[in-house]
Amino acid sequence: MSGMYRDRVDPVKQGRLRLAIQVITAVFLNGYAAGFAGGKIYAGDLKKVCVPVLNCYSCPGAVGSCPIGAMQTMLGSHGRFPFYVLGLLMLFGILLGRAVCGFLCPFGLVQDLLAKIPVKKRRVPRRIDRPARYLKYVVLALLIMIPVLSRYGEPVFCKYLCPAGTLEAGIPLMIADPALRALRGALFHWKITLLFIILVSAVFVPRCFCRYLCPLGAFYSFFQKFSFYQMEIRKERCVECHQCDDACPMDLDVTKEIRSVECIRCGRCRAVCPENVIEISFSGKKISKNG
């Protein structure tokens, strides 16, 4: 038993590693410092490249395009079906599944930081929580896939719902440009109110946007079961201490739902497990406990 404890994943080290990956990704995707300084949107060649996470095209620092905005912009401006964008999302889905949400998404990082605020967390009653998780599939269908398939070019999700766009683009541009502040109206106030509700909710209900509303999380969930990146539990060694359940930001019953489409594969369950029963693998090859 002592050997097993020596090999245990250090939860502090694991948490710092994931945070470092999240921060580096967020900085890399929003590395155009001159945009924040001058309130201007980067319009270079890199903007033709689509990123696999929510990262608003109109953010002053963004160096790439958000996949959701790119899909509907391609239809509206160029009349072309977004095969490239869908192909990119499918590639990341096949490789990582919802680990994209757990490690690469800047808005996921925002939610994780808010969840660190030391207040009592709230558990949404299961009778409400489980049905509510299907809302993100409704958002994916109604605000993204149906408009795309019908070749409706207006970025509906970006315009009316996306909190990442409001946080990354709407607020910085409004601060930097007095002319834009003069034009703000009911839509901007709606987006600000929605963002406020989501951010406050994330303090008390970790990853609330990921659980209930994120269409990219819904899209990646279709690849979760067969993606190359997987997590497994050696149930014969599990002592049912439920520390993994307490650590899970998605409020899952980890021993039963580790391969659930709701798991963002953040690894927090693995880090706190006293018996090292949770293993990760990539394309069937086990990844070291200390990796």
Write structural notes for this entry:
This protein is mostly helical. The protein is built from 18 helices and 3 strands. The protein has helices spanning 2-6, 11-29, 33-38, 67-78, 83-96, 99-103, 106-115, 126-132, 135-149, 156-160, 163-176, 178-183, 186-204, 208-212, 215-221, 243-247, 254-257, 268-272; strands spanning 229-233, 278-282, 285-286. The protein has a 3-stranded antiparallel sheet. The longest helix has 19 residues, at 11-29. The chain is globular, with a radius of gyration of 20 Å. 39% of the residues are buried.
Q: Strand order across the biggest sheet?
A: 1-2-3
Poorly predicted regions are 1-6
Sheet with the most strands, sense and barrel status:
3 strands, antiparallel
Distance between the amino and carboxyl termini:
20 Å
Percent range of helical residues? 55-70%
Radius of gyration over all CA atoms, rounded: 20 Å
H and E string: HHHHHHHHHHHHHHHEHHHEE
Q: Based on DSSP secondary structure assignment, what is the total number of beta strands?
A: 3
Which class best fits the helix and strand makeup?
Answer: mainly alpha
Strand composition percent: under 5%
Number of helices: 18
Calculate the mean pLDDT score and round it. Answer: 89
What best-fitting shape do the alpha-carbon axes yield?
A: globular
